[in-house]
Every structure is written in C-alpha cells, then in structure tokens.
C-alpha cells in the first residue's frame, strides 16, 4: 500500500469522500489516504492528523515525497485537536480504530465538528458504538459498507447531520448493511453468534452472580436478534 494504491479498505473509505471536500484524516498514519485523495483530484486540500511521533514523521515524509506540501498539512495533534473552525473542514475520515475509541475522539470536543458535513468512519470492532454516538449527537447514517481484506472484516459508516430512528437490529448491525445482507455481512454475524455461544458455554461453570445472569440474558437476546435477521 502507498499513496498511489490504497488497501481495499482505505480505497472504500476514499470512495465516500465528496468531490471538492476539505478533508481531515484523523489518525492518518502514513498519510496515504489524504495523499491519494489529492493525487486523484477528489480534493484539493487536506489535513493529516497524527498523535504518535513515528507515524507523524512518516506522514510528513510521505507528503514531501508526493510533493503535496502546498495541499496537505500534517499536524501533530491528539484526535480532533488537529482541526479548528478556521480550517473549513467539510469531511472527516477516521479509520482503523475501535468503535468506542472513534466515538470518544469525536466526543472530546464536539465544537471541532462545526463546519463538518460528513463523517466517514471505519471501526475495526464494535461499530455499534458509532451508531449510538450518531443517534445521541444528531447525525444520521447515509451509507455503509462491509468488506473483507486479509481475512479481516471491516465496516464503514458514513454520517451526515440529521435525525433518524433505528431499530435494535439496525443499531447493532447497520440499516444499510441489513438491507443488502451480503456474503461478508452473513459471515460476520455467523461468527459473532459462534463467539457468543462460546461465551455462554464458558460461564456455565461460573458462579451465577447478578451481573453474570444479566450478561447471559443480554447475550441470548443478541443471538436471537441476529438469528432472526439471518
């Protein structure tokens, strides 16, 4: 993977960035995504935010190598602190982190989202945290994708401002993904059921305290919910 050729996962993230957007890639690592977006003419201006020194330096080097210093600014900053209202950022990408971490990054300073029109988020795990965050903070899901790369399954959630009502199944599994119900989606949730059933077997020998009993009920409910959908 490089600035000219992204991974399948990041290429899908890039496909959701609106043409002409001012994009900020938070946790940009090597800045491959913003470099790709500028090289392809999808955006003219981008910010790459990185909080870890090594990846920050890699991002700086990549931008220089691609000769994009006039269009991409690499910033050493924690999460959304990489941007401010003056930047006029209209799209934010956050990829390759857990859903709860992405939600916490967004929550840390909601004012940083003042000019943002679209969020393109790719949680590695617990995508439900993103949907819950969106519901509470006035964002709605406008698109989703699920794909497999290197034997790992990834979800992408695209948010824009607005309100929506999601069922329990839509919150857990994604409204767009539920409608499409492709092969990767089915594989993911069959795997989740298997894991939940393993957990239930594991706790049988454990003393049944109230928290454990509640966990058993919750897990059985999730299994039933997913089985009904599949």
UniProtKB/TrEMBL annotation:
UniProt source species: Kurthia zopfii
Domain of life the protein comes from: Bacteria
One of the Pfam families matching this protein, by short name: TrmK
Keywords: Methyltransferase, Transferase
InterPro entries attached to this UniProt entry: SAM-dependent_MTases_sf, TrmK
A molecular-function term among this protein's GO annotations: tRNA (adenine(22)-N1)-methyltransferase activity
Biological processes, Gene Ontology terms: methylation
Protein's name according to its UniProt entry: tRNA (Adenine(22)-N(1))-methyltransferase
EC number: 2.1.1.217
SUPFAM superfamilies, per database record: S-adenosyl-L-methionine-dependent methyltransferases
